[in-house]
Amino acid sequence: MTPEQIIAALKQLMAEGDAPGKVLTDPSDLATYGTDWTRIYTPNPVAIVLPKTTEHVQSLVQFANQNNVALVPSGGRTGLSAGAVAANGEVVVAFDNMNQILDFNASDRTVRCQAGVITEQLQNFAEKNGLYYPVDFASAGSSQLGGNLSTNAGGIKVIRYGMSRDWVAGLKVVTGKGDVLDLNKDLEKNNTGYDLRHLFIGAEGTLGFITEATMKLSRQPDNLTVFVLGLNDLGSTMDVLNTFRSKLDLTAYEFFSHQAMNHVLAHGQVKAPFDTEAPYYALLEFEAVSEQVMEQAMELFERCMENGWVLDGVISQSETQAQSLWLLRERISESIAPRIPYKNDISVVVSRVPGFLEEINQVVSDHYPDFEIIWFGHIGDGNLHLNILKPEDMAKEDFFEKCQKVNKWVFEIVERYQGSVSAEHGVGMTKKAYLQYTRSEAEIAYLRGIKQVFDPNGIINPGKIFD
């Protein structure tokens, strides 16, 4: 089919039903919906389709199979692995108009949502109903639930609440063959063979489209309190973590380098937490449910100071101050974005983080001493974000080429530490050449086999994870 024929057929499909969908072909829409935050690949979709119903999505997939048309899912377009980029004439299926909260069950503490529901929308709904949706990250105001589940997003609360998959009671999906599956039916216990919902969670939209998800909710946390600590060195991160976890159930444990904080401070919206400068900082959060817990937290802080692990620190005295301290961590990505950072999202088991980080930092610094390196991440669950900032006088293409050389050295260290080349951002196109550093040949063969079962014609998000 010609592009014109494809567009005409899509418009006809989207006109069906009581709630018509949309088809966009304006060049600005193609550029907006065809990309994500990576900005490495030039978007080049044929059209953007915004369905309103699962039936629309099913019709799209059936049409795509009949006419060999590639489909790329698009959520909030906040991805960092080019997993939702349409660079090769595909049709983008965007879920912005499937954004309704469909049902709420207070007894089961579950809420059924369409895939386009914004993370913050779900968080606010839970709060209004006296409950809590704990999966949280800096892009919560724009990321969509379907995209979060397709990458098994983690974020800042994993140390206490786990990943996105831990909160999924059920899924409705349209497979690459065009079948609609209602997975797990929201059951807490269902031991009847393979749990297919967990294949779709983290699959980056390569097996089919998530159209609805039933999410579990939790009780609201009580008096969340934040410590920001200046650390003496990297090794101290684990000493501090072990000390606080011995007595407190932490809801978050984040870290960032002094260079990372400097970029946030340069924007002028946040102040330094204290006068003392430290090479690294830790942000930890816990529920201060009583005076006894607060006293215990202060005793642990003093113990860390006495041992020389912590140089200085501050504890929030109000919810407003806690939110202000969180900005030191949450504003990092935004503050370095103008420098077109090359991002690596890597992980190891928590106990091996300091040595792992030191080795990678040394390799990158030795080979590219003129590159500014920004470290931050969810160190409490072993997830580190390595950001290399583009020098202002270097062309983007030359910068990315040099960074890809760095990848080999970084991922060789990842492999030696038995870590992951992508902890939470997914593989997409940016990491698929390095999949073998985390997955064995046998595992990759099984992954390809699963893809073949659900998407035999290869029309769903082709070229992502592997070719």
UniProtKB/TrEMBL annotation:
Answer whether the UniProt record assigns the keyword Metal-binding to this protein: yes
The EC number of this protein is 1.1.99.39
State the needed cofactors, names only: FAD
Q: Where is the FAD-binding PCMH-type domain?
A: 41-220
Query: Mind listing the GO biological process terms from this record?
Result: respiratory electron transport chain
InterPro entries registered for this protein in UniProt: FAD-bd_oxidored_4_C (IPR004113), FAD-bd_PCMH (IPR016166), FAD-bd_PCMH-like_sf (IPR036318), FAD-bd_PCMH_sub1 (IPR016167), FAD-bd_PCMH_sub2 (IPR016169), FAD-linked_Oxase-like_C (IPR016164), FAD-oxidored/transferase_4 (IPR051264), Oxid_FAD_bind_N (IPR006094)
Q: Where are the transmembrane segments?
A: none
Instruction: Name one molecular function that GO assigns to this entry.
Output: FAD binding
Q: Which family does it belong to?
A: Belongs to the FAD-binding oxidoreductase/transferase type 4 family.
What name does this protein carry?
D-2-hydroxyglutarate dehydrogenase
